[in-house]
Amino acid sequence: MCEARREEVATIIRLLADDPLGAGREQVSDPPPSSYFAAFEKIAADPRNLLMVARDAAGAVVGTLQITFIPGLSNQGAELALLEAVRVDASLRGQGLGAAMVTWAMDEARRRGCRNIELMSHASRVDAQRFYARLGFASSHVGMKRAL
Fold first, then answer.
1. Which of 17, 22, 78, 95 qualifies as a FRET site for 86, CA 20 to 30 Å off?
2. Percent residues over pLDDT 70 in the chain
3. Cis peptide leading into 32, omega within 30 of 0?
4. Cβ atoms within 10 A of the Cβ of 97, count?
5. pLDDT tens digit string along 113-135?
């Protein structure tokens, strides 16, 4: 896993948009809207956020994820790792890349002293939920969301 570069934003957006939910919320264009680059700059400047990519042997981006490290008083003051936007190129799914990426994220969270890593998966993403369960994640909370 490597930190994402600005010039990879368009590819990352394509990965994020490659399912029915993502297609409805992302805007795939060349170049991407400036809001994506503004968000990338904020993430890159914040040491509590990592936007990571997996590259194939030729250097092409084939996977992405974001980890946010959240300080808190709960759990004896341990930081919490929040894992988001895990995506693997559709042509490579089922080959172990996603598991390797999530394992890397868990190792990084441990290295930073986190006691827990959490993620949310949309209720409609049943295959993703099975994938995370195979990696040891358990459904432990009821997530709630509200548009602002």
1. 78
2. 100
3. no
4. 16
5. 999 999 999 999 999 999 999 99
Domains of the chain by start residue, with CATH: 2-134 (3.40.630.30)
The residue count of the chain comes to 148
Q: For the chain, first and last CA: distance in Å?
A: 33
